[in-house]
Specification:
five-stranded antiparallel beta sheet, four-stranded antiparallel beta sheet
Length: 107
């Protein structure tokens, strides 16, 4: 059994998308998630959904949560993913939100 700590970053768009997917044969624990609004003027909302494996249903971790201009939303509780599980995010405005996650991958 090997443990690997990593960071994953991504821009969050209005079309939404997977910002992290646990590799096959790997369990992942997202220890922290920082969603930063890099726009200096406008607030933007974020939706965050997770599913344990790729065939499961998404469930919301956060729904339409505002991230004010020049601020950061911090989620510091773990999200556990099985192999091929993922986290999907959607923003209310393109170019405003970025995410960085601290992740432990267990193989």
């Amino acid at each position: 059994m090997a443990n690997t700590f990593k960071n994953q970053g991504a821009a969050i768009t209005t079309s939404g998308g997977i910002v992290y997917a646990a590799p096959a044969a790997t369990q992942s624990i997202i220890h922290s998630m920082y969603v930063s609004n890099i726009d200096g003027n406008a607030s933007a909302n974020v939706d965050i959904k997770a599913r344990a494996t790729s065939g499961d249903t998404y469930y919301h971790v956060a729904k339409t949560v505002p991230v004010p201009a020049d601020s950061t939303l911090v989620l510091d509780k773990p999200i556990d993913l099985e192999a091929t599980g993922d986290v999907h995010m959607t923003a209310s405005a393109n170019g405003d939100l970025e995410v960085v996650m601290g992740i432990l991958e267990i193989t």
